[in-house]
Amino acid sequence: MRKVSQTFFFVTNNMDKIHLKGCRFYGYHGAFAEEQTLGQIFVVDCTLSVDLTKASYSDRLEDTVHYGLVFEAIKKQVEENKYILIERLAGAICQDIFEQFLPVQAITLKISKENPPINGHYDSVGIELERERV
């Protein structure tokens, strides 16, 4: 294995990012009865702010946040729970991520519905939450 010189790296005040984009899950969230009964696809984009300095030197999974486990945490919330508001769903996802992944300092989470039961022409409707660890 080739060793990388640490002299080429520097730390900024900006937090590093881990992105999960376009995660698709089937769930039963919504204010309309048919959403609670029939369900629909939810598209989740999640950006985690994490200090990845150590992982960028070590090449060790335990020095980062395992995005596969983050995906599973999001999936569990979307597929195993039922909320009226996607805002509440997003809040629950953020809470789970902060509880399970201590290195995460901030989260930007978008949840979109591609086919909500409203008349009109659109690509999707959704919400975005930004949360920081306190």
Automatic annotation (TrEMBL):
Q: Does the keyword 4Fe-4S apply?
A: no
Q: Into which EC class is this enzyme placed?
A: lyase
The UniProt entry's GO CC annotations, sorted and at most eight, read:
cytoplasm
The record's listing under SMART domains reads:
FolB
One GO MF term attached to the UniProt entry: dihydroneopterin aldolase activity
SUPFAM superfamilies for the chain = Tetrahydrobiopterin biosynthesis enzymes-like (SSF55620)
> What name is this protein filed under?
7,8-dihydroneopterin aldolase
Which organism encodes this protein? Answer: Streptococcus lutetiensis 033
